[in-house]
């Protein structure tokens, strides 16, 4: 295939592998899309390998792509066929692999259950992770290219570095292409690991059983048959095709708590990738430190500490595509909400002398936009935002609501505090709603997001109750719209981000670029953001321990203090508020600042690989 050209001298061929990229549902999608664009603009040849999902979700294009070839991928003791499609977006080549049976990869991050397990934890999720980890090497083999770097992302690609070191780097059909290729693994969220038992259960009538017949011989398919023959227990690690002893190898293998009674054969997909990658990349300096803590390493802190001691972990604070979020160019900031009343969004820049006036215009437009949306979509939009007082402080949150994001702290009961006017056993949300500025100014809350776990569903249910308790002051939008998300950030005064832990942090950066100051916790990538001047230090709350209840009360008090300070400055010192807004908007966040740091890590990965091969 000739569409992948050899780069100029000193440039690299880089292959990104991840579940997201073409489709997007989380931060990994932005990361892969934007970093691949930045690398290609810097002169490198870039390929992104993603699954071809049956149902699109925030896809980068609606085009199907050009069919290139078919790959018969080794899985278990057989093969699974995949069709490879090519699209070029800008200078980046996207290669997606499609299951011709339409059984695998129905949609990115399905939220349904299979035989009692969440889809990602089921046999489906496991087979998909095996295929995503292994197929890049076969695509590369068919293309006949020799990449400098294979860049794997998160647990769904965790077997990739292991496949490289155990099979492909030395395989006679691939050695000429991959022997000198460096492997790196970015950990976007170490809490998600692909932790798997020896056996995975599936109903005999499930469509995936048709695929299993292709990858196991009749006598090697199951390790158990239950419920009168209607439920099979499938040998999970046997699907990988990797030597069995790695399943039970703790140091350097996939074993994870397999010596605990009842957990025999338990293994961890992400752990295997962390053990075998030439280099590991943390998405911030704060994340680099957090992953080494026992409470935030989620059982893998010892692996991270080991690799860090060996000098094999680097960190690069996430960037954002500044052009895609610059308020001077956003198309959604030209929308007219109500022509008769001349209510509309306006574009603005950090150098505008009247920036606060333009932000006020956007606040009024946001209120009208949200209220109109609630009237038109009462099934998933709730509440109302009063527009009688322009100087009320509008606080927003845009998030996929999961436990990690920390919004349950709104309903934490706090200790009495006279100085902060916190009543005994008062919830944080109620304490915030009672805060007043010098002219009676209040907080208003606009929240947009969808639940990602049980905790998120519970939180959104409680926020829905707040829309009734505090009529005119709370609005909830239970869906995600990227354009509306930018309007919410642009029209708000404060972006609220109470993360329990935050590896990188994208939403806070987007808010800052749009001139919306952040109230957040001191954790992970938010530490990098704070140190870079992304928000005012007095708007920062102490981080709370993951699973440590007493710290929630301390952090809750910090948030009351932060919001009281924010409302005070906003109402009483517009000059200072404008200075803070302009400072936040000029934070250096563009990916062009990050590319040299990634190239340094890529070079280190290639050198590490050479050192291992030639000790």
UniProtKB/TrEMBL annotation:
Lipid biosynthesis keyword on record: no
GO molecular function: alpha-1,4-glucan glucosyltransferase (ADP-glucose donor) activity
GO CC terms: cytosol
Residues in Starch synthase catalytic domain copies: 15-198
GO BP, sorted A to Z: glycogen biosynthetic process
InterPro entries xref list: Glyco_trans_1, Starch_synth_cat_dom
Domain Glycosyl transferase family, chain residue ranges per copy: 388-534
Assigned EC number: 2.4.1.21
Keywords: Glycosyltransferase, Transferase
Superkingdom classification of source: Bacteria
Catalytic reactions on record: [(1->4)-alpha-D-glucosyl](n) + ADP-alpha-D-glucose = [(1->4)-alpha-D-glucosyl](n+1) + ADP + H(+)
Annotated Pfam families: Glyco_transf_5 (PF08323), Glycos_transf_1 (PF00534)
Keyword Glycosyltransferase (UniProt): yes
PANTHER family: ALPHA AMYLASE DOMAIN-CONTAINING PROTEIN, GRANULE-BOUND STARCH SYNTHASE 1, CHLOROPLASTIC/AMYLOPLASTIC
Name of this protein: starch synthase
Organism: uncultured Desulfobacterium sp
Lineage, top ranks: Bacteria, Pseudomonadati, Thermodesulfobacteriota, Desulfobacteria, Desulfobacterales
